[in-house]
Amino acid sequence: MATQVRACPRCFKLMWLKEELLEHEDENTIRTTCPHCKSLVRVRLVIEGPNATGPKMGH
Asked: Is there a domain that residue 49 lies in?
């Protein structure tokens, strides 16, 4: 997985997520710490549908 850009669900600032900073909870969910607000956040991965192969920009 390459670097992903996601918005933090708590502070709404963009996070650049690198593979070495992620913890995989299951095959569809990752967990990481926001570098801005230091909150533990969970991000669901899009693995099916038209957005699965597109850029992950947090939209």
From this structure: no
Beta bridge partners of 32: 41
Number of domains within the chain: 1
- Triad 29, 1, 10: Cα angle to 5°: 45
Q: What's the DSSP call for residue 48?
A: S
- Its pTM surpasses 0.85: no
| 27-52 per-position pLDDT tens digit | 888 899 999 999 999 888 766 666 55
Task: Kindly provide the b/e burial profile for residues 38-50, where b requires at least 16 CB atoms within 10 angstroms of the residue's own CB.
Answer: eeebebeeeeeee
- Domain region containing 33: 4-44
